[in-house]
Inverse folding.
């Protein structure tokens, strides 16, 4: 069976936002700053190129004890032995993917409202990426942000962990955790930062403290 | 275990060459004209779009008793239960792919010389796509054609079936079979033809006759 990863600081590598730094360099620095999970997202590469990048990230994350998730490409996730695959609306349909995913591999699914979230849970999602929580410049097609209220209703309407995504940074990460999220997924506020490790460290500190407070309240 | 498909007329669907006709329409007409195997090649689609197209082609080919192979994308091949996956130099490395391919699925591999062909065979290829045999306008990066002599040496230097590819049409298909190929892979001469079924029928007739002659000589 799968073990649920620490999703508290979930960094998505995006080469186009990384100021010329490659996936491996971004991931190394993000992990040095406290990332607990790395997702490889790359839409502009051949399968062979993607495999090579994913193998490097798999080596790094295994060495550092950090979870490694591949966006969209189940073939790549399977080929490199990633800990998980993350699927959105443009990716493999969940029932088809679920049949191919080995029991030890986690399945992340994007959801934008409670209905999508519950459906994904019923179809075997291990965790949800929920957003966009705030306004974001990263995804042009992300639409209106769902806001903290909808995030709260989703976090409390499903039994699997939720990671907030979209426009999250050190200034608003606490609110995301207070809404019930198990972690925050970040892209530009970490990978586009001049100092990736420092940017990750700052937000990791906020998330850690917010999770500790949430746990205390929960006791 | 896998059963080796009839690869004698192997039609690769290429949307960009198909004069506005979609993969399904091209495949239907090619099969009506005698295609024995359909390969889906599509580089410009989301995974979800590719899955939908592949499911349609899987339905059609199953109904018609024609083999169905997916280019590059093992995730799609697995998700729709294709008969095989075809891998080139830009796709998953063979050892990684071989581990993920179920025993009933065939693995096609591109090879351009005898060394590549033997290596692919030793790494578990079920058949080889060998070429470009002749000059072709379809693949800008295909380089100088290997010619019939090299094709002959490969066909007689491996123990798995070889399909010739690259610039093959009704006028030269006989030579490809006479060099020892089990079939011909065609793109533009079928999918770009005004009448796809007629074009397929013409080349299917040539291949059938050439294979019958080759078998007689072999007796």
């Amino acid at each position: 069976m799968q073990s649920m990863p620490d999703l508290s600081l979930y960094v998505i590598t995006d080469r186009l936002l990384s100021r010329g730094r490659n996936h491996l360099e971004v991931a190394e620095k993000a992990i040095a700053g406290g990332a607990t999970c790395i997702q490889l997202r790359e839409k502009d590469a051949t399968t062979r190129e993607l495999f090579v990048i994913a193998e490097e990230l798999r080596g790094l994350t295994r060495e550092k004890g950090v979870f490694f998730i591949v966006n969209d490409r189940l073939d790549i996730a399977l080929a490199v032995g990633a800990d998980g695959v993350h699927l959105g609306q443009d990716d493999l349909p969940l029932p088809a993917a679920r049949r191919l995913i080995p029991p030890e591999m986690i399945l992340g699914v994007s959801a934008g409202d409670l209905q999508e979230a519950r459906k994904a849970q019923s179809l075997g999602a291990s965790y949800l990426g929920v957003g966009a929580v705030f306004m974001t410049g990263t995804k042009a097609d992300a639409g209106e942000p769902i806001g903290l209220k909808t995030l709260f209703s989703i976090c409390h309407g499903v039994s699997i962990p939720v990671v907030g995504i979209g426009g999250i940074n050190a200034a608003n990460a606490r609110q995301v955790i207070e809404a019930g999220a198990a972690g925050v997924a970040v892209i530009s506020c970490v990978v586009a930062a001049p100092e990736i490790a420092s940017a990750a460290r700052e937000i990791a500190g906020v998330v850690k403290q917010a999770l500790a407070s949430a746990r205390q309240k929960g006791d």
